[in-house]
Design brief:
Blueprint: H1 6-13, H2 17-26, E1 38-39, E2 47-58, H3 75-82, E3 88-92, H4 104-112, E4 117-120, E5 123-124, H5 127-130, E6 137-139, E7 141-142, E8 151-156, E9 160-162, E10 165-167, E11 172-175, E12 180-183, H6 188-210, H7 223-238
Parallel strand pairs: 2-3, 3-4, 4-6, 5-7
Antiparallel strand pairs: 1-6, 2-8, 2-11, 9-10, 11-12
Amino acid sequence: MGGLSEETRRLLELTTTATLTTQLFKRGLRNTFIQGVRRLTPVGSAMVGEAFTLRMIPAREDLDHPGMFADRSHPQRRAIEECPPGAVLAIDCRKETRGGCLGDILIARLLERGVAGVVTDGALRDTPQIEVLAIPVYAGGAAAPASFGIHHAVDLNQPIACGDVAVFPGDVLVGDAEGVVVIPRHLADEVARDAAEQEQLESWILKEVKAGKGIFGLYPPDEATRARYQAWRESLHER
């Protein structure tokens, strides 16, 4: 993990996933919003962190059973203890939701270790208990059956697919009430900066709309609108 700067993290926490997907689209990246997941836990704070990944393949009866979790080298158990504080555990479950890939005890452990969040395109079990935990959690569904009936954990911290989006270890994952966006790590600083500027401009445009202005020339802004916006910004600095 390269470590996000405090400024980049702060800006991303204040930015919507909608704005971030627009900034990534401007850079030619169209498939960055994880499909089919929703926030399970309260949306009081944004989720921001570098990806630590876990990949699941279909279970096989001769390998997957309850006793396998006693093995300390098991990738799912290792993920819980090795995902770094401040990172986001991203789990590729092939969008398979018949069994939960994690439950409340494992997610509680991630919370206690300072992990920034969890996102999976699969299901979680113990969701009523997970929903009250103070950690951002996104999942593709809820399922009571345990993981060993459906999933076989194979890889840690390798590139994965999550909700039809490529996630590489160290990519920056940002989650809000709408969902989760994946930002390539090398773009995170500039995307955070430009997204913050876009948010400020669009906040001003929204005020103009609420004041009765029409959208033509305002959204997107033409030169005259941008000049008014710049004048407004300069007036803020003069106060």
